[in-house]
Amino acid sequence: MREKIRKYQNRIINSIVLLFLPLLLLLAVTVGGRFKIFGDITEEPTVQEKADQIVVGVSQLGSESGWRTANTESVQNAFTQKNGCFLIYHNARQKQENQLKAIRSFISQRVDYIVFSPVVETGWDTVLQEARKAGIPVILMDRQVDVEDESLYVTCVGSDFVEEGEKAGRWLESELIRRGDGGEPVNIVVLLGTEGSSARIGRTAGFASVAARHKNWNILEQEDAEFTSTKGKEVMRNFLRKYDDIDVVISQNDDMTFGAIEAIQESGRSVGVNGDIIIVSFDAVKSALEMVSEGIINVDIECNPNQGEYLLRVIDDLEAGLPVEKQYYVEENVFKKQNVTEELLRSRTY
Ligand code: GYE
Predict the structure, then answer these.
(1) Model pTM?
(2) Which residue from 106, 225, 253, 338 has the least number of CB within 10 angstroms?
(3) 111 is in which domain, residue-wise?
(4) CB of 142 sitting under 6 A from ligand 1
């Protein structure tokens, strides 16, 4: 009998445990989400947090490149509790629809500011009108939007992509002169970044405007490689199969450059300062700068991902009721073998 009662008791205990286990798990996931263990979107901050902190919803477009990782870190280091902020961060994984969802969730959570890096330029009018209706200022980070009414966003902190493209063109001009260019044909292929993105649109236009001044520059082909290393390699491999006389590769970011260099070397050709093919890259992340200093990449047009500090300053100004400019450009350099110093490599954090 006793044995029976004990069995019965055990069964009851087991059922209670089974009943509460899902509840315990749910609690763990919720708490985890709050501290960004499980999810990308944190939970709505409590009223108390809202009262003394500026709540900033950040929609990052993805994590496709080394540049992007550095950009995300910069934002996360700026919008900290120490700086008076509560950050709600979301990664859209390259999809505009995910960014639209994130922005709408920021609106329903009534954040104080919305910051986002638009994956493409078009298609934002409606959601930005919704933010305006809710009285939430929107700040663009990194890339631009193409909207009917520019007052739908307060300001943009990012890069001058057309200027970056022109810098690439101007560097090639001077390099060809240095090599004693006698007007022989220069065959160029271009690896393009994400279709519809400001970085691609601006860099392409900037480079093309310089190329147009040179009758002997032939842009053989420009192809989308989505700012990723894998795609860069694949597209470069196709270019190499199609054209056996490529002189220059313009690669719109370092990740695509890494892939392209692999493809070129596997094809038996060499790259860089003493190589068969000139490599022009954009971003200037640390591992690319190392390749510049080794003469593997000829030139790297810097794109500065450290935008968090600028964004924080803009928000502080807005909080203080001060006027802000419509556009802030971050400082950017051009790196060749000669100016990639040991000191620069040591201090580069990304
Ligand atoms: O060059 C590339 C990234 O928008 C400036 O996006 C950014 C670009 C950057 O994925 O690496």
Answers:
(1) 0.86
(2) 338
(3) 54-158+307-319
(4) yes
| Distance, CA of 230 to CA of 200 (rounded, Å) | 18
Determine how β-strand 155-158 pairs with β-strand 113-116.
unpaired
pLDDT band at 182 (very low <50, low <70, confident <90, very high): confident
Judge if 131 and 165 occupy the same domain: no
**Nearest ligand 1 atom to alpha carbon 64:** 10
Rg of the chain on CA atoms, in Å: 25
Take residue 215 and report the two structure tokens written for it.
Answer: 């009758």
> What tens digit of pLDDT does each residue of 226-256 get?
999 999 999 999 999 999 999 999 999 999 9
288 occurs within a structural domain: yes
Q: Are residues 201 and 134 in the same domain?
A: no
Residues 172, 131 share a domain: no
